[in-house]
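User: Let's play a game. I give you a shape written as tokens, and you guess the letters that built it. Ready? Here's round one.
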């Protein structure tokens, strides 16, 4: 949701404020949590909306078996049309039962731990190449482009079997496509831009599928094609799932890698701690995801009445905007949440990847890429220096860094 789309009534902060959307948000999220477990928010005509920010309530709503991505009796927002509507109705991330389970059953086997672990070598190689490119530029780069954008390329291109030469044009308009997640109607210009980029993605993957025989595609794509032949997936669902791997896998990983670099520059002792004890890396990834959550808001529609931890009752049919990042900074769950603690015992309890049946399917692959990024950085660089503050995209849901000028200083022993 862009900075012009929210019009709060009695809400304690202005969700449309540009400084909030592009800033740290820690204090504002604390103010929202302190004001109540669930707060009404006026987003104009439509379903009554409540903002839920405390960890226990967010986690419970995400795990509700009857919680829906769309209002009961509907399959998509009424303002969508054209290619965006087609893409939405076939999108694993946004559809409800029974179609959600049907699609997840098809692709789930590709994301079991044994299969996911094989991508570690691709992640390691992608990190190595990105760092080599950084070194070739005298170590002064935009970390978003040189690390955040570059590192996911190797894993996602290998998973889909697409050419790495296509990476730049496939990721150049990511923010435009993310408008498909807007909880409020898009204006005509936004909808036209969304439909244009959605048509591009659907056509790209359709042409890619016909570019070679089925047996020459990657195992993941072969799985989708076999499901289409057996009638378990429609052709549109095949295209949508391929784009979902690109879209969801790229967005979360690019944002998290960029956030990681920013934190390491802001808190140089973290880099030293990780270098001194590399065994901290897996836990550090969980703490980093908690501390700087890549996706801030998820949406659920309540089939039944829901009572929050402070007794507030959300009526059946209400829309809940759950603030993942605010929940991950809840002091009732995470002691001193504003401190990055690499040995936090409950760091993995974060809700950065959502929860319940819509928990991010690609989370294990994202974790591997973050782990290997940290290992590559601590083995190569002594410190990371911010040349100027990073800039964030002004979006309530996806406040991704769009630039982060840094200088990385190589280890003196190298």
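Assistant: Ready! My guess for every position:
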């Amino acid at each position: 949701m862009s900075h012009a789309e929210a019009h709060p009534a009695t809400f304690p902060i202005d969700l449309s404020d540009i400084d909030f959307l592009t800033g740290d948000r820690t204090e504002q999220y604390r103010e929202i949590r302190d004001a109540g477990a669930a707060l009404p928010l006026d987003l104009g005509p439509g379903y009554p909306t409540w903002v839920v920010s405390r960890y226990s309530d967010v986690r419970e709503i995400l795990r509700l078996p009857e919680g829906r991505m769309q209002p009961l009796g509907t399959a998509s927002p009424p303002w969508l049309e054209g290619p965006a509507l087609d893409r939405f109705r076939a999108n694993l991330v946004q559809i409800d039962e029974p179609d959600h389970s049907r699609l997840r059953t098809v692709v789930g086997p590709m994301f079991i731990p044994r299969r996911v672990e094989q991508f570690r070598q691709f992640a390691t190689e992608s990190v190595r190449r990105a760092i080599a490119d950084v070194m070739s530029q005298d170590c002064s780069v935009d970390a978003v482009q040189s690390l955040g954008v570059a590192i996911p390329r190797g894993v996602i291109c290998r998973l889909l079997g697409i050419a790495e030469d296509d990476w730049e044009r496939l990721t150049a308009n990511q923010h435009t496509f993310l408008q498909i997640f807007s909880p409020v109607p898009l204006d005509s210009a936004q909808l036209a831009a969304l439909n244009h980029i959605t048509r591009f993605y659907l056509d790209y993957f359709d042409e890619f599928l016909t570019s070679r025989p089925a047996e020459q595609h990657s195992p993941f794509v072969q799985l989708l094609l076999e499901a289409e032949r057996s009638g378990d997936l429609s052709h549109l669902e095949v295209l949508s799932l391929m784009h979902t791997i690109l879209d969801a896998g790229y967005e979360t990983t690019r944002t998290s890698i960029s956030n990681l670099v920013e934190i390491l520059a802001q808190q140089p002792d973290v880099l030293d701690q990780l270098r001194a004890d590399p065994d901290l890396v897996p836990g550090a990834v969980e703490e980093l995801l908690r501390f700087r959550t890549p996706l801030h808001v998820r949406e659920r529609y309540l089939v039944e009445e829901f009572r929050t931890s402070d007794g507030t009752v959300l009526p059946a049919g209400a829309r809940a905007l759950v603030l993942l990042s605010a929940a991950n900074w809840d002091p009732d769950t995470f002691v001193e949440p504003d401190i990055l603690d690499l040995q936090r015992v409950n760091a993995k309890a974060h809700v950065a990847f959502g929860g319940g049946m819509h928990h991010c399917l690609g989370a294990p692959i994202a974790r591997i890429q973050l782990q290997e990024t940290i290992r590559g950085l601590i083995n190569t660089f002594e410190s990371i220096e911010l040349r100027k503050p990073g800039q964030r995209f002004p979006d309530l849901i996806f406040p991704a860094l769009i630039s982060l000028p840094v200088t990385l200083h190589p280890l003196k022993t190298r």
